[in-house]
Write a structure and sequence with these properties.
Low-confidence stretches: none
Mean pLDDT: 92
Distance between the termini: 28 Å
Bound molecules: FE2/S2 (inorganic) cluster
Strand order of the largest sheet: 2-1-3-4-5
Largest sheet: 5 strands, mixed
Shape: globular
CATH class of the largest domain: Alpha Beta
Order of helices and strands: HHHHEHHEEEHE
CATH superfamily of the largest domain: Glutaredoxin
Number of domains: 2
Radius of gyration: 18 Å
Number of strands: 5
Length: 201
């Protein structure tokens, strides 16, 4: 399962860049002033995006001040959800779902490929420095199991061969198309609805 380890090396300070501040202010407009703490999850997500996929403690402090929340409340949110990383991860961060529907459809084989190609242990950066992987709970794409998430995209209907192909590509900084790797359109039955008759695999 994913580990929630706070990185021992921490930056002293954090603040949103100009670009992210604009996005943050747009998010805040969705909430009444008295409920602005409801923006804590999108704010943490923004902080993670800006900081190469992980959230330093200084960012938790920054978000707590921004939203006038106690630090501990923001820390609780950041440590509870598996989508928030508290230590550096790869530029390409792979989350493999190993909850039951994915597991009975072969998620263990996806994990095996990640171990062989990226690192023996989860949450370790690959030798070439651009990739890491972890196991996570259900990502809500069970109907296309087994699947994995790479940064913001879902790769679905995987097997060992397609997983290896995807990982080899990201090692070369080439991003393959997300979606079904058995040629299904979204969640449609595969025989009736191939994507333009083509197959990613
Ligand atoms: S069980 Fe894997 S996406 Fe739901």
């Amino acid at each position: 399962m994913s580990l929630k380890k706070v990185n021992p090396d921490q930056p002293i300070s954090f603040e949103f860049s100009k670009k992210f501040k604009v996005v943050a202010e747009e998010i805040l407009k969705k909430y009444p002033e008295k409920n602005k703490k409801s923006a804590v999850m999108p704010f943490l997500y923004l902080a993670q995006k800006q900081n190469d996929n992980w959230i330093p403690l200084a960012a938790i402090k920054y978000v707590s001040k921004y939203l006038s929340m106690p630090y501990i409340n923001v820390y609780e949110v950041a440590t509870f959800y598996s989508m928030f990383n508290l230590s550096p991860v790869g530029k390409y961060f792979i989350q493999v779902c190993t909850t039951t529907p994915c597991l009975i459809r072969g998620a263990d084989k996806i994990v095996k490929v990640c171990k062989q190609k990226i690192s023996e242990k989860e949450n370790q950066i690959s030798k070439n420095g651009n990739c890491s992987w972890t196991e996570v709970e259900c990502l809500g794409a069970c109907v296309n199991a087994p699947m994995m998430q790479i940064n913001d995209d879902y790769y679905e209907d995987l097997d060992e061969k397609s997983t290896a192909k995807i990982i080899d590509s990201i090692f070369k900084d080439e991003i393959l198309q997300p979606g079904s790797y058995r040629g299904r359109k979204n969640t449609a039955p595969e025989k009736e609805n191939k994507i333009n008759g083509s197959d990613h695999a």
